[in-house]
Design a protein that fits this description.
heterodimer; A: mainly beta; six-stranded antiparallel β-sheet; four-stranded antiparallel β-sheet; 2 helices; 32 strands; about 5% helix; about 40% strand; globular; B: alpha+beta; 6 strands; about 30% helix; disordered N terminus
Chain lengths: ~525, ~170
């Protein structure tokens, strides 16, 4: 989720400035970069307002690392939270009201006969037009034997959730496949490469010979809201058969000191017997055209990096799953990326590791524990969701959440049902700092095979406020593999909250895959407030 | 008719003689061993699909600096026949670094049965030989999780990996 729009920030600044005058012992405000064309949300006064009983207690974690700011409750009390726009004229497509399953709509994003998996999405507004883009993997049957089954990253962009512009993300010469898309954007009209959307992903050759080389980390960008896309920048290239570049994550800084800087984190998987995999990071200060040399964050039996930045200062966070420690871990640095703190444990549990990566006791869908993370700027906390086994002796998985607040890492919370498997959560937060977590859910199927998309709204401590299961047809992951052994439906799903001006209002758009036949799976988007 | 039947048999006998001659072409040498290394790893690459990479390496290093390394790498299931990549020779600078690392980390008194966090599913056995008649065997692998190896043991395997890498340049 992006920071509030400029008028909101200006109003916030005024109020904070008043507070600053009244509170001489307040923390100093952040100093905007000389190049910044807008002020960041600054450090403000401590929370000395009396709590409004109709709103609830003031947040105990309004400050972190010396930075204070208005809680969302306070903002709402002061009238700073933007009002929802009234319903607009009707457009073709979903109904504006909330459906019985708690969502506003579920729409088909892809509509081909191929298998589409692993979706990610972002929305931004250019002028008066709001563009939502979904990127995902398409499973093609186009190549020559023995690699006739190829994977490619595709995109679909809409301005009205009725018509979509679709296409393949361009492939560079010398590569035949791509995958693992994840998106982010500079949603501001300021900073480096304003209003630019990005997709990162892996790009690789067919599986010939001893390994897959060359392979690369690619970064595509779009300056028209996602209607057309650039050739990818190859942020990292590997030609050594002993390695494979894997699972990139991307974050675009919202901090005024380097707004628009693109950070990526990815794995350099070492295939040799005694060598650990390495987690590397790099950055781009020219809008993804070039990237810095990679910097090693950590190594080990690890996967699934996530990279975040704080909008309140020069801080970069990298998180990952450590399968030896059975832990979600995090390390921090500045935007120089040069020095990283020792890894800290966010939570421990019974992760789904490479040794146990297929559910249903070993023959089911591939679903490693891979964390998804957000910097919740409303609540000033780092938040993570993932799935793991219910216990070390269980072969069923649940969804968990943990956050690092001003008082450190909180106790992890289970946020899903415990019946059967729930896996691959995606999430984002709204202007109140509440999370919407969506995930695949098998609690409806006594055979623990068919899944639906479920959701859970939580506060930033992971307390579930409401939840539901979408009224959509069951998906059978076994459609992704014939015979049904170790099927692949992607490794994650995604969600993004945006301040819309259409009749559905501000909402999350969660993207997920539905498997509908032996060869067909499509990406769906669910709008939910 | 008789003649035509005998000709193939004679051909087979001749081939067998040639084959036997080839099998006898071996060289025997005596060297003092420094270490024997054998490791196997299966790594899940999270590219689309379900891809597991198999890697096996056998490395013999002798006290005079000579080394023999054989490695096999392939995705599973393999789409092509397995191929072993074989390297034999010396790398003096790398050999010196290896020797120093083994000494600094007291390879002769370390114990294994632990996880060096190599990732994936792996199993490695390393045998070190002293100048005289002592030896030490270190077994590491994911089967020993959650027992994590000491830094010294990790350093020993890292040194062997670095040495192996110098024998097999990237590509």
């Amino acid at each position: 989720m992006r920071l509030p729009p400029l008028p909101f920030r200006i109003a916030l600044l005024l109020v904070l400035a008043l507070g600053w005058i009244q509170q001489s012992d307040a923390a100093p405000p952040l100093v905007p970069s000389p190049n910044a064309k807008f002020a960041p949300v600054p450090a403000g006064p401590p929370d000395r307002f009396q709590p409004d009983p109709n709103i609830g207690p003031a947040d105990p974690t309004d400050s972190l690392s010396g930075v204070a700011f208005l809680s969302s409750a306070k903002a709402r009390r002061l009238g700073l939270r933007p009002d929802k726009l009234p319903p607009g004229p009707g457009i073709p497509g979903p109904q504006p009201q909330t459906l019985s399953d708690g969502s506003q709509y579920t729409l088909q994003v892809t509509n081909d006969a191929q298998q589409d998996t692993e979706p990610t999405d972002r929305t931004l507004t250019i002028g008066s037009t709001t563009y939502t883009t979904v990127a995902s993997i398409k499973y093609l049957f186009t190549g020559p034997a023995p690699n006739q089954n190829r994977f490619r990253n595709y995109f679909a962009t809409t301005t009205d959730f009725s018509t979509w512009t679709r296409g393949e993300l361009p492939m560079p010469t010398g590569y035949t496949q791509s995958g693992d898309p994840l998106m982010d954007e500079n949603s501001y009209t300021t900073g480096i490469a304003p209003l630019r959307k990005y997709v990162t992903g892996i790009i690789f050759q067919d599986y010939t010979g001893p390994t897959v080389v060359p392979n690369a980390i690619g970064v595509w960008h779009s300056d028209d809201g996602g209607m057309t896309w650039s050739q990818p920048t190859l942020a990292a290239v590997n030609t050594d058969q002993n390695f494979f570049l894997d699972k990139p994550a991307i974050n675009v800084s919202q901090w005024s000191g380097n707004n628009g800087t693109v950070f990526i984190a990815y794995m350099l998987v070492d295939l040799r017997p005694s060598n650990p995999s390495q987690l590397l990071v790099a950055r781009s200060t020219d809008g993804g055209v070039t990237f810095s040399q990679p910097v090693l964050v950590t190594s080990g039996n690890i996967e699934g990096p996530q990279i975040l930045t704080s909008p309140y200062g020069d801080k970069v966070y990298v998180l990952w799953a450590d399968y030896t420690l059975n832990a979600i871990r995090m390390s921090t640095s500045t935007s120089s990326l040069l020095v990283w703190t020792a890894g800290e444990t966010a939570a421990t549990g019974s992760l789904v590791t490479p040794s146990t990566q297929y559910l249903n006791g070993g023959s089911g869908v591939r679903a490693l524990t891979l964390p998804m993370a957000r910097y919740n700027w409303v609540k000033n906390c780092v938040s993570v969701v993932w799935h793991e086994f219910e216990s070390s002796s269980s072969n069923q998985t649940d969804i968990f959440y943990v956050a690092k607040t001003a008082s450190g890492w909180q106790t992890k919370k289970r946020i899903s049902p415990t019946t059967n498997d729930q896996f691959m959560p995606g999430f984002d937060f709204d202007s109140l700092g509440r999370f919407m977590v969506t995930f695949y859910d098998r609690s409806q199927d006594p055979n623990n095979l068919l899944y639906r998309e479920s959701w859970a709204r939580t506060d930033y401590f992971g307390n579930v406020l409401s939840s539901g299961v979408l009224a959509v047809p069951d998906s059978n992951p076994c459609y992704a593999a014939n015979p049904c052994q170790k099927p692949f439906i992607g490794d994650y799903q995604d969600s993004w909250w945006w301040n819309f001006s259409d009749q559905y209002g501000n909402r999350f758009n969660a993207v997920w895959t539905q498997q509908t036949s032996n060869t067909t799976g499509n990406i769906y988007v669910t709008g939910i407030q | 008719m008789k003649t035509s039947l005998h000709r193939p048999i004679l051909g087979v006998v001749a081939l067998m003689l040639v084959a036997n001659t080839a099998a006898a072409q071996v060289t025997a040498r005596t060297r003092a061993p420094l270490l024997e290394f054998h490791g196997v790893k299966r790594t899940t690459v999270l590219a689309p699909g379900s891809t597991i990479f198999y890697a096996s390496e056998a490395l013999l290093v002798y006290r005079d600096g000579w080394a023999f390394d054989s490695s096999v790498m392939s995705p599973l299931p393999a789409s092509e026949p397995f191929v072993a990549h074989i390297v034999e020779g010396t790398s003096p600078a790398a050999f010196q670094a290896l020797g120093e690392a083994l000494a600094a980390n007291h390879v002769g008194i370390q114990s294994g049965n632990c996880d060096i966090e190599a990732g994936g599913s792996y199993e490695i056995e390393l045998t070190w030989y002293s100048r005289l008649n002592r030896s030490n065997v270190l077994k590491v692998g994911d089967a020993f999780r959650p027992v994590i190896c000491s830094d010294a043991v990790k350093n020993i395997f890292r040194a062997v990996a670095d040495y192996s890498a110098t024998l097999r340049p990237p590509g």
